[in-house]
Specification:
heterodimer, A: about 500 residues, alpha/beta, Rossmann fold, 2 domains, six-stranded mixed beta sheet, about 25% strand, B: about 350 residues, 13 helices, disordered C terminus, cell membrane (chain B), transmembrane (chain B), transmembrane transporter activity (chain B), membrane (chain B), ABC_transp_permease (chain B)
């Protein structure tokens, strides 16, 4: 075997991200690594690429034990990684980006001609056409991907880790990439492919290793398996059924009709989304992150513009309306990314807590300091937000604690409609139960909730109806008592409904 | 809670204090290089700034326009944008105040108040113009505010050199006629240069502090500056709020010009507002104070003291006036070092946000 990772374990404090993982890779093999978010794929690859040290276990390349403490060590041993988000300099040319770190030199520095020649040679050898003199910023994402792979090849990698390589590509570019991967493998390069898209994996991989909760739940030959089996291995746990009363549906609160949002290169980010959320129900949106959920939420909440379609909230057209108007009409919003949208890091707990409440908590334009503090203090107590004081800057709060504060703030808006995007990301089990309980309570009080989550368990536990998004389209709608995790993961991965 | 507040306060003070000490240290080296006596020079500097009641009030009066400009910059920085156009806004404010006081009929106090208001309005409009270009044409505020300075300064220079030129006196200076005595800002003490503008500046600082701290829109301005996406998400109307902050920011600078004209110069004299570098001192004061309104008052006083002290040094020693500029420049260098340091830290944090799933 070219690569042996033996009994790799990695703990972060009490959390075991990897336990006893064995992973092998042969010469010319394409080995896919799959699993849900947080299953431990990332940690394993970070260990292989020298970005993390394993707590225990060993890595052997060509039978020789290796210890990587930086990516540079890993690169020396012939391991290269193409990250999900490209690491290129947009204003530099393709050739400059590829040779960076090992630039051909001459007496007066960088030898541009040699670099271009080297890139041309490389591009011919591996059959990946690029124009060495083009600037990266004017390349399509598919070409940028190629540049990334060529960069890794230029560094002399025999083992190439591809992290979600097709996430940003158009279907045609995906096809080209898969063909290129296969050709490179036939030339003796080995690939580790991390992906959520099971169809692509079935198409290209030789072997598939499935991780769940930091453990290997299966290593299967791609020839002898199918998407259903892999989905089961990925999910494979019994759900703790929470008692949910039957929903008492009221009038529709949110109506979305034909919502479409343009993407970068002809591929719309949201493509004709149409659905309703009624009072007294939770509608879950399932999907692999990056399939248009963020943009859908952005359009409903007034943060992003849609190119066509209509959003109606409590009977009023709010398409393209300012956020304040939408909020006044009845929107509360637990945002997906707590640091980007949900908080101001260098503001205090109180200041972060009062957003959206300030205009209600005022007299003659002055904030009612005492009642605001009391309100925020109440949330801090109830949600057990661990903070030094109400005047601590939230950058000193842990992510989970900040999430609790944000959830409390938005639940307290008391609006008829609530967007809960990844409402429990990074919070501990106790707080998760509490937030879930609050969401269900809101629903029983005739609130309408749109729940967006990449955690299937969360979706299944809370939703009355489930919408599945794939590549910007709503590809399925299932009542939650009929839906199974396998069925949803299949739809999420772009598979067909049974 | 109070302890953590106190700690924050002390933490915020460490940087400027260290910057000041380093500034004085490098100033000492410069003094030694030009062959001056370090302790004597600093003693003269102290005397020049605070040595007597006369010098002290002189320092306060020098600080007045710096404070007002600094407050405007503070508001802009807090709202999250740059306003480097204080000089132009100040010039137009001063010019409009002079014209109003000269040509508006009525009793002196009416002229004075109208002149102050016209100064605010002129500065505000000039600043809002840059804001409008940003909103409409996506022109970078940093550049527009900076370049509008030249337009304002040269335009004002033209007006006082030709149509509004004072031809009554013998001197062929580019200046307006002198404003009637009744419209002057009253002096606070007989025979001293300190005028009521200083009180206006201090009251302005307190009002700005209270506004930022206790009002809803002050809260929104702070959140806009702290994380514009968070503000947008929470329903803060960015465009409107930004325009208002721009107007207010320019209004402060315009008021600085008006106060200087009505309290010290009594006419608009070409170059009288730009040569002493009030606007840039004001921006420095803001940086030094970390955009805190009351801190800006303190740092403006410090910068004014450096300048008046420098004059004292020049009067009584062989050391040139520029020594004060050396100290001032060093101060800014070390304060901006903090800014770029925290900027780098933020960049690093972003890079570590993880690119892998």
């Amino acid at each position: 075997m070219l690569l042996n990772m033996e009994n790799i374990s990695k703990s972060y404090g009490p959390v075991k991200a990897n336990s006893d993982i064995n992973f092998t890779l042969g010469k010319g093999e394409i080995h896919a690594l799959v699993g849900e978010n947080g299953a431990g794929k990332t940690t394993l690859m970070r260990i292989l690429y020298g970005m993390e040290k394993p707590t225990s276990g060993s890595i052997l390349v060509n039978g020789k034990p290796q210890s990587f403490s930086t990516p540079a060590d890993a690169i020396k041993s012939g391991i290269g990684m193409v990250h999900q988000h490209f690491m290129l300099f947009p204003s530099f040319t393709v050739a400059e980006n590829i040779v960076i770190g090992q630039e051909p030199g001459k007496w007066n520095g960088f030898d541009r001609k040699a670099a271009v020649a080297a890139v041309e040679e490389l591009s011919r050898q591996y059959g990946m056409p690029v124009d060495p003199n083009q600037k990266v910023e004017s390349c399509s994402l598919g070409v940028q991907q190629r540049v990334e792979i060529l960069k890794v090849l230029y560094q002399g990698a025999d083992i190439i880790i591809l992290d979600e390589p097709t996430g940003v590509l158009t279907p045609l570019e995906v096809k080209e990439l898969l063909v290129a991967i296969k050709r490179l493998a036939s030339q003796g390069k080995s690939f580790i492919l991390i992906s959520h898209k099971l169809q692509e994996i079935m198409e290209v991989a030789d072997r598939i290793t499935v991780l769940r909760d930091g453990r290997v739940t299966g290593v299967v030959d791609a020839k002898h398996t199918d998407i259903e089996q892999i989905s089961r291995l990925m999910v494979g746990r019994d759900l703790a059924q929470m008692q949910r009363s039957t929903p008492k549906l009221g009038a529709p609160v949110l109506e979305v009709k034909g919502l479409t949002m343009p993407g970068d290169r002809g591929k719309p980010l949201v493509d004709g989304a149409t659905f309703k959320v009624h009072a007294g129900e939770i509608v879950g949106v399932a999907g692999i992150s990056g399939n248009g959920q963020s943009e859908l939420i952005g359009a409903i909440a007034g943060l992003q513009a849609a190119s066509s379609g209509q959003v109606t909230l409590t009977g009023q057209d709010v398409t393209g309306a300012p956020v304040r108007k939408i909020r006044e009409l009845g929107l509360a919003h637990i945002p997906e990314d707590r640091y980007q949208w949900g908080a101001a890091k260098d503001a205090t707990v109180v200041e972060n807590g009062v957003m959206g409440h300030a205009r209600r908590q005022q007299r003659f334009g002055l904030m009612r300091g005492r009642s605001i503090r009391k309100m925020v203090e109440g949330w801090v107590k109830r949600f057990e937000v661990k903070t030094g004081s109400l005047d601590t800057k939230v950058q000193f709060l842990s992510g989970g604690n900040l999430q609790k504060l944000i959830a409390a703030r938005e639940l307290a808006q008391g609006t008829p409609f609530l967007i809960a995007a990844e409402p429990t990301r990074g919070v501990d089990v106790g707080a998760m139960e509490m937030i879930h309980g609050e969401l269900l309570k809101r629903r029983d009080e005739q609130g309408a909730i749109l729940l967006v989550s990449s955690e299937l368990t969360e979706i299944l536990k809370l939703s009355d109806r489930i919408l599945v998004m794939n590549e910007g389209r709503i590809v399925g709608e299932l009542p939650s008592d009929e839906a199974t995790e396998e069925q949803i993961s299949l739809l999420m991965a772009g598979g067909k409904r049974q | 809670m109070n302890i953590s507040k106190l700690k924050n306060g002390i933490g915020a003070l460490v940087q400027p204090v260290v910057a000041i000490l380093l500034g004085l240290l490098i100033g000492a080296i410069a003094i030694a290089i030009v062959g001056g006596d370090i302790s004597q020079t600093y003693a003269e500097m102290w005397k020049g700034a605070f040595g007597s009641f006369y010098f002290f009030t002189n320092t306060l009066s020098r600080a007045t326009p710096i404070i007002l400009v600094g407050l405007g910059t503070t508001l802009a920085f807090r709202a999250g944008f740059f306003n480097l156009g204080a000089e132009g806004q100040m010039i137009l404010g001063g010019l409009c105040a002079a014209i109003t006081a000269l040509y508006l009929p009525g009793p002196g106090w009416v002229k004075m108040i109208a002149a102050l208001i016209s100064g605010i309005v002129a500065g505000g409009i000039w600043s809002a113009f840059a804001g409008w270009m940003d909103a409409k044409f996506r022109m970078n505020l940093l550049i527009t505010t900076l370049l509008l300075n030249y337009i304002a300064s040269l335009f004002a220079g033209y007006l006082v050199a030709y149509p509004l030129k004072d031809n009554t006196g013998s001197a062929a200076m580019a200046q307006t006629k002198m404003i009637d005595h009744s419209a002057w800002l009253p002096k606070l003490f007989h025979g001293m240069s300190l005028h009521a503008g200083f009180l206006i500046a201090v009251v302005g600082a307190v009002l700005l502090f209270l506004y930022m701290r206790f009002t809803v829109s002050g809260y929104e301005v702070r959140m806009l500056g702290s994380n514009p996406l968070f503000a947008a998400y929470g329903g803060v109307q960015r465009g409107k709020l930004m325009l208002y902050s721009m107007i207010a920011s320019g209004g402060f600078a315009g008021l600085a010009g008006a106060v200087e004209v009505l309290g010290t110069q009594y006419r608009y004299l070409d170059g009288s507002l730009s040569t002493p570098g009030y606007a840039w001192s004001g921006i420095m004061a803001t940086l030094l104070a970390g955009s805190h309104p009351l801190g800006t008052v303190a740092s403006s006083l410090l910068l004014a003291a450096l300048q008046t002290g420098g004059m004292g040094v020049e009067r009584n020693t062989e050391v040139p006036l520029e020594i004060a500029s050396v100290i001032q420049a060093t101060l800014i260098l070390f304060v901006s070092a903090k800014i770029s340091y925290s900027f780098i830290k933020r960049k690093k944090a972003r890079a570590q946000d993880g690119s892998v799933v």
